[in-house]
Specification:
By secondary structure, the chain is of the alpha+beta class. It contains 2 helices and 6 strands. The chain has one domain: Beta Barrel (Thrombin, subunit H). It has a 6-stranded antiparallel beta barrel with strand order 1-2-3-6-5-4. The chain starts with a helix and ends with a helix.
């Protein structure tokens, strides 16, 4: 049943969405195209070589300004195609979000 749920929540783009990969330390960046994406993972096509890059952990930048991003780790590499898994955000960030929502409801 969970596998069926993942397929339902996955969005596949007919033309792909332009995005960027960037090293955690900011020392490298590559253009890519997002073919499909879900809450937990994405399929990408990378422009240029990924040889020698640290793909253990990196960012997927979903906006040109870098304000929308996901921290990723490589699941599978096949030529220029990557399967990546999104890493969960830190518990502290979730806690702050919950606190803000609670404060918003308290004002009502």
């Amino acid at each position: 049943m969970p596998a069926e749920r993942a397929e339902i929540d996955r969005v596949t783009f007919s033309r792909g969405i332009t995005a960027h990969l960037m090293g955690i330390d900011g020392t490298w960046r590559r253009n890519c195209v997002v073919e499909s994406i879900s809450d937990t993972n994405a399929s990408l096509i990378v422009e240029g070589s990924v040889e020698g890059l640290n793909l253990k952990e990196f960012f997927l930048l979903l906006s040109s300004t870098g304000l929308v991003y996901r921290r990723c780790e490589l699941e599978r590499l096949n030529g220029d195609q990557l399967e990546v898994r999104f890493l969960k955000q830190m518990a502290g960030k979730k806690k702050k979000s919950s606190q803000r929502q609670g404060a918003a409801y308290a004002d009502e």
